[in-house]
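Subject: Sanity check before I submit

Could someone independently write out the structure tokens for this chain? I want to compare against mine line by line before I put it in a report. The sequence has 332 residues.
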Amino acid sequence: ELEDLIGTFREERGLTEENFSVAYCYTGTGETWSWNGDRFFPGASLYKLSLMMGLARKVSSGELSQEDEIYGMDISYIEKMSLTYSHNEISEMMIGYFGPFREYRLMQAELAGVPEEELPEEYFSNNIFSANFMLGVLETLYNDPATYPNVIECLLEAQPEHYFRLRLEGQYDVAQKYGGGDHYLHTAGILYTPTPCLVVVMTYYVSNAEAVIGDLAQMLADYSLTLDQRADQREEEARLQAEAEAEAARLEEQARREEEARQKEQARLEEQARLEEERQAREELQQLVQQSQEEARLQDGLVMERVMFCLVIVLFLLLVAYFWRKFRRRGS
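---
Independent answer below. Compare away.
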């Protein structure tokens, strides 16, 4: 999408790989994009940004304090003169403070996050930078503001109504550092849109270069707003998705609990049925036992009756025989 936007912009302004480069970072995601971003151009005063960041880092580490003086000037004054007013003599004096030129240039590369082996040899003898290099410096500055507090404050006051602030003045705060001379004009800075973005624009022999820089800052600020809207939309979609997943999980948990309850109830009913079957079996067994006992009692009674009947018959016969013999004796 940026390829299309910048492509159209370049065609309208006659911008080519020989005279233009741009780098952009959307801090909401940390994603970066550039066009011709590795092309090195004469850096002009852009060097002052990483120079003062190196000085601020010494203050943050405790090696210096903000009130310490270097070359008869306190550090706050040096930072303001170099960053807000782009004072050349003071800034050039400070280059020597960091030792041999190569060591000073390595310090700047470290702040940009660029390894020494990726730098052209010309970098160690000339004041040159690329858009991607400067974007790395801005990322270091933005991601660790506590280490460079006065640097950002100085940049917020720099060049009112010029460069990035040419179109954005009154819309957003802008912390910027420009560099220009001998037909080149560059600007690197932080655009404090709702979700800030980092922008570097470098031009060389470009007609009305400041307007190009200002218009591009406006375009990239507007583009950042569309990313905010998309991020908000993604957050809303993620929220709805999370709610849907939570509801699905709740329903699943509810179904699981209902199934557990159903299974428990079924188990209870099955246990109740089993106990009822056992009770009925016991009752049937008791009935059978009682019936068997009753039948036994009846059988015992019948046997006894038969025995008694037989005894009565025997007794009767004995009596008959007795009286028969007695009668015969009397008759004879």
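---
OP: Matches mine. For the report I'm noting this point. DSSP finds nine helices and nine strands in the chain.
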